[in-house]
Amino acid sequence: MIGQNDNINLEVNDKKKVILGFYGLFYVVIILIIVVVGYSYLGKLETFSRGDLIPATLAADTTAKTNVDLPVVKGTTTAPVDLVKEVVSTPDKVAKGKTLFETNCVSCHGPEGKGDGVAGKTLNPPPRNFTALTGWTNGPAFSSMYKTLQEGITARGMASYNSLLPEERINLILYIRTFNTGFPVIDQKEISTVDAAYSLSKGFKLPNQIPVKMAEDKILEETKTATEKVENITKSILNDKNEKGAAIFNKISFDVKRSVTALAGYTKWNENENAFVKFVSVNPVAKGFNVSQTGITSEEWGIVFQYLKNLFAK
Ligand code: HEC
Predict the structure, then answer these.
(1) Residue 245 lies in a domain
(2) In a domain, 4, yes or no
(3) Last residue of a domain, which of 159, 191, 206?
(4) Which of 6, 25, 64, 153 is at 20 to 30 A from 181, Cα to Cα?
(5) Is the shortest distance between the CB of 132 and ligand 1 below 6 Å?
(6) Domain span at 291
(7) What's the 248 CA to ligand 1 centre distance in angstroms?
(8) For the chain, how many structural domains are there in total?
(9) d(Cα 181, Cα 215) in Å, to the nearest integer?
(10) Same domain, 238 and 168
(11) If you measure from the C-alpha of residue 154 to the centroid of ligand 1, how many angstroms do you get, rounded to a whole number?
């Protein structure tokens, strides 16, 4: 018999079913969301890594980039520097040093050299304060400051200024020395130290530089000219049957082109007739010449030599 209590139980069971059903659906929806989000994320992974995480410059396809070649640089010879003269402070040198300081150094070392420039505020260690002479890394001596400017103290935030001329670096030092009267004197020992380290009194030379591509083109062009020359001379010798010189050459050579190529690769044969005869008779086969040249008179050697000399001079 179904009583009141049973009815209630049934209702509770129904409710339980509804609730369970709801939770089931809930899990399905959660899983669906995970799957959908996951898919769209995977789809975008490519864009994420290429566009967002790696800076554009690195992500760029470098293989497609056209060659970045060396620039054309005219060679320079840096004149020898007379250190003894250069280290003597004059108002003119100090003024030049000041101008250089204002363009290159003020941002870190400050307008009064106190190491309080705007760009230096965040640096640790801070830029050197030139009004104090203690606690320097390389030191306030002339040779030490020169070393600092030439090589930098890069690990501590002070760059190398080796792109400046030696005189410019010295002018900078002379200006910095005006921030304090106690800088050590620049004596002969200081000068010798700098000269020994950077051989300034000898001067140095930087050769010309051209782009690799340009060098390649030049070599190709030269090779082409050389090949063309060999072709033309060979053609003349084969065609100038009426020329005495050409006729003799055809007699001494079994492979005209090979002989001409050999001649083109060695310029000293054309110094005199003897040098030419010697060139032909040493290792003749490799040069396309007949092994024995018994039928050729000395007069004929003279004619063929003169003929070739003219041909090659064209
Ligand atoms: C980007 C900031 C910055 C600029 C620009 C800069 N310096 Fe420095 N400089 C520093 C820092 C930082 C130090 C301290 C390095 C250390 O403690 O070893 C320093 C140190 C020095 C020292 C002392 C080295 C020593 O022995 O302690 C000299 C000299 C010097 N700088 C000269 C110059 C000159 C000259 C210029 C301009 C041509 C210049 N600096 C430009 C940051 C700078």
Answers:
(1) yes
(2) no
(3) 206
(4) 153
(5) no
(6) 212-313
(7) 78
(8) 3
(9) 54
(10) no
(11) 9
